[in-house]
Amino acid sequence: MVRKLLRAALIASVAITVSTPATASNSWGGYHWARITNPVSLMVNKALTKPVWDTAVGAAVSDWNSSTGGSPGVTPPLLGSIPTGTSSILSLSQRIASGVSTKQCSPIAGQILVCNDSYGQRGWLGIASIWLSGLHITQGTTKLNDSYFNLKQYNTLEWRAMVACQEIGHDFGLDHQDTTFDNVNKGTCMDYTNAPGGGYIGIVNYGPSNVYPNQHDFDELVTIYTHLDTTTTAASFASTNFGVRLVGKAAPAPLSTQSSGDSPAEWGRAIRFDAQGRPDVYEKVLGPGQKVLTHVFWAIGEGPR
Ligand SMILES: [Zn+2]
Ligand SMILES: [Zn+2]
Question: Which ligand is closest in space to the CA of residue 130?
């Protein structure tokens, strides 16, 4: 009994008790795919070399096609239930990208490309890059770094699920709901954490898992995508480098086909920082109104070097 009380006291003192208000918005700067109707048909191309990534990325894409958050887990292993329903905003298709360099992961016009490779011990688990024309996303990539996921610490279902889900979420124009790693999980992959599976690490209780999008993410997508545009930047069923389809507008400048790169030197200027002070969004200006933004998921204790 005494031991139990002692343990409870320890938990009370160590567990993070700060309760931050629910994030009002996790729109990433209002950036979105232009479309003339909803849902927007988006192709997610997969250049994946491992079955574990096929599983994680395939599940993430199908979760993002949902409309309703699942319930967060309350008993170990705390994974919770997967989202349900059909999104009125995103109509995602997925296919295997052939003939794509996973190392480069060069963008495909009007589409999303997800790659895995050993990008080196550069400090990051995953990055997501979006190419912008004004507020409109014209192409997006996600890179998942096996140089970390091959390590025991990150070689888990939960780490893969969270990072794949989050980096793909950025490609739709979503931001984080929370950028503190060592507080209680919000039950969404758009929340940084040291414990993607939730539950206890040592005596700290992280609460629910962060492996799926939650209701707030789906609501946010509705907010971001409620307005319609007069053009579309999504080229869902075109073959590679189809270019941006435009309705009633002059042809746009050709899109960059160059990879966003693997290091801060290639990502441009740091424009935002996480709760630990590490830069987590970089911006590279490509031309008037044209830029590429890169969201970085740093490994625990790592950062730019
Ligand atoms: Zn728009
Ligand atoms: Zn992120």
Answer: 2
